[in-house]
Amino acid sequence: MKAEAIKLDGAKAGSVDLDEAIYGLVPRIDILHRVVRWQRNNAQAGTHKVKTRSEVSYSTKKIYRQKGTGGARHGARSAPIFRGGGVYKGPTPRSHGHELTKKFRKLGLRHALSAKQAAGELVVIESAVSGAKTSELAKQVKNLGWKRALIIDGATVNADFLRAARNIEGLDILPTMGANVYDILRSDTLVLTKAGVEALEARLK
Asked: CA 71 → CA 54, 63, 74, 89, distances in Å?
């Protein structure tokens, strides 16, 4: 399929061929959900921790005698039944991540790109190279109507463009290897450079 390419100033810059096997799929929500869940679970810190009975700061001396008090029998004051005692079976540091095959992750990325194409939220630009300052680039982005945009470039991102764009609210830039389903889906506009289109096709074939 053909897609029109533009420059950052809005001028036309020819067209590019988009691979049907990557941009022409019927998006499947179940695949996208599984990949996003895998991403977010791997990003979760899992550092939550509570003190168990052996870790709270209390004496282990028996708090009162076993028999004759008329109350329940108890040992140390650190028992979970008491206020300030240890927590029984509380959370401990662990990984929330789970496995997902590389083949399935690639499939998820294809469906995410296809979803943006189908929704009309995919834009192709000539290149992410700009000698403009942040204020000029911000004006260009505003004129193009990008509110929350993700720009995916080739193998590397131009340092001058990255410097000019880093303080613009709602604008994110990633190299091809950083392209992921979660960031693509949460953006309102997905912007691919011509180099990014070529690199994504090489990555996903």
From this structure: 24, 12, 9, 26
Amino acid 25: pLDDT: 95
User: Which tokens in the block code for residue 7?
Assistant: 């420059």
Q: Give CA–CA dist 56/53, Å, rounded.
A: 6
Contact predicate 138/160, CB 8 Å: no
Residue 11 is predicted with a pLDDT of 87
> What fold does the segment set 2-45+97-204 form as a domain?
Ribosomal Protein L4; Chain: A; (3.40.1370)
85-106: pLDDT as tens digits:
999 999 999 999 999 999 999 9
180-197 core/surface letters (b: 16 or more CB in 10 A; e: else): bbbbbbebebbbbbbbbb
Q: What is the pTM of this model?
A: 0.83
